[in-house]
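Table S2 (continued). Query chain:
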Amino acid sequence: MQLTMRSSQCLAAVLLLIGTAAASPALAEPLTSDSAYSLVGAWSCRDPDTNGNGLATFTRAPDGSINEVELHRPARVIGLPQWGEFKNTYAFDASRGLWTWTSTIPGVHRFRETGTAEPWTSDVWTFEGTLQMLGRLPAYQPSRMQLVRVDDASFAREWEVSSGGGQWVGISRQICARSNSPRLP
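Corresponding output:
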């Protein structure tokens, strides 16, 4: 009888776990008021500080994540070729209710930036996380990226690193406008 009782407890635990896993997928749709998918499309961007320019193309993947390819001239990371290419992924985790952003540079393993953010439900969408640039001190630094909706056809974006004590220092920024036919300058 004790074996039967233990077996039924195990079965109940397994069924509970299966039901929980089915009810909360790792990647699902964010809130309907989330503006993240408004980024899908092509954008022409410029850096007002360096007079650099580039393109940002956002696509929605079948799993619901958003993939972005950024091309910039000059590259916003010192030591890269004249053109900088960044691959960004934005993935929504329904179980945590957060977006995760990851930025990499193809072929440059010393650069990686990651952060998390609540759904984009106001004019500002802020990702906070870590900038990894191996070969520089410090190699790992608290960082954040903010997207600011200017209007339906434009947004501003700024990358910052922490200088300690709650202070943030801008390292790069862009102003992007939706474009039907973006071209590399």
